[in-house]
C-alpha cells in the first residue's frame, strides 16, 4: 500500500509540475507577444512622425514664395530640383509618381495647403492601386464628353472602386485612409456631373 501511495503521490507531483511549467511558458509567450505588439505600435507611430516631418520639409522646399500654399507651377517646377528629388528618394517616391498625384491632391482651387499635401501623400504612399486611380481621375477630369457619357464613365469608375476596395483591404495599414480618398474623389466627380447637368438644362431653357 505504501508503494502504491508513493507512486500515486509522485505521479500527481509530476503532473502538477508540468502544468506549472506549461503555464509559465504560455504566460511568457503572451507577455512577449504583447510586448511585440506594443513595440510595433510604437514603431508605427514613430514612422508616422518621421513621414510627416519629411513631408512638411518637402512642402516647405516646394513652397518657393513661402506663402503657405503650393501652386501648380511651384509644384511642377520643384520636381526638377535636386534637393526635392533627394527628399523623394528618401521616402521611396519617384518624381513621376508625384507628378501624377497633383490631380488627386488638388481639391479644385489650384493650390495645395500643407495639410492637403501631407495627408494626401500619406494616403497615396504604398497603395498598390494609387496610380490606377490617378489615371482614372485624370481621364475623367480632362474629358470633353457630355454629362450623359461622363455619367457612364463614373458608373464604370464606381464598379472599379468596389473591386479596388477588396484589394485595398489586403494591403497597407493605411488602407482605410486610401478607401476614404477613393470615396472622396468619387463624390467630387458626382458633384461635377450634377453641375454640368444643371448647366446644360439652363442653357437649353435659354435657347428655348
From TrEMBL:
PROSITE patterns: EF_HAND_1, EF_HAND_2
Stated name of the protein: EF-hand domain-containing protein
Coiled coil spans: 34-61
Residue spans crossing the bilayer: 6-26
Keywords, comma-separated and alphabetical: Calcium, Coiled coil, Membrane, Transmembrane, Transmembrane helix
SMART domains noted in UniProt: EFh (SM00054)
Domain (EF-hand): residue spans on this chain: 50-85
One GO MF term attached to the UniProt entry: calcium ion binding
Amino acid at each position: 500500500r505504501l508503494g502504491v501511495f508513493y507512486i500515486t503521490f509522485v505521479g500527481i507531483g509530476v503532473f502538477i509540475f508540468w502544468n506549472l511549467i506549461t503555464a509559465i511558458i504560455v504566460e511568457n509567450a503572451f507577455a512577449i507577444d504583447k510586448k511585440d505588439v506594443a513595440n510595433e505600435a510604437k514603431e508605427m507611430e514613430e514612422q508616422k512622425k518621421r513621414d510627416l516631418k519629411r513631408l512638411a520639409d518637402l512642402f516647405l522646399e516646394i513652397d518657393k514664395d513661402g506663402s503657405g500654399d503650393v501652386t501648380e507651377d511651384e509644384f511642377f517646377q520643384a520636381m526638377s530640383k535636386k534637393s526635392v528629388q533627394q527628399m523623394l528618394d528618401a521616402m521611396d517616391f519617384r518624381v513621376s509618381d508625384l507628378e501624377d498625384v497633383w490631380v488627386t491632391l488638388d481639391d479644385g482651387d489650384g493650390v495645395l495647403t500643407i495639410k492637403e499635401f501631407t495627408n494626401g501623400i500619406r494616403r497615396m504612399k504604398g497603395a498598390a492601386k494609387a496610380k490606377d486611380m490617378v489615371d482614372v481621375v485624370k481621364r475623367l477630369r480632362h474629358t470633353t464628353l457630355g454629362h450623359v457619357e461622363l455619367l457612364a464613365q463614373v458608373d464604370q469608375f464606381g464598379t472599379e472602386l468596389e473591386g479596388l476596395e477588396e484589394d485595398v483591404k489586403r494591403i497597407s495599414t493605411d488602407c482605410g485612409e486610401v478607401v476614404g480618398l477613393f470615396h472622396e474623389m468619387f463624390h467630387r466627380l458626382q458633384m461635377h456631373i450634377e453641375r454640368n447637368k444643371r448647366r446644360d438644362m439652363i442653357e437649353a431653357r435659354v435657347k428655348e
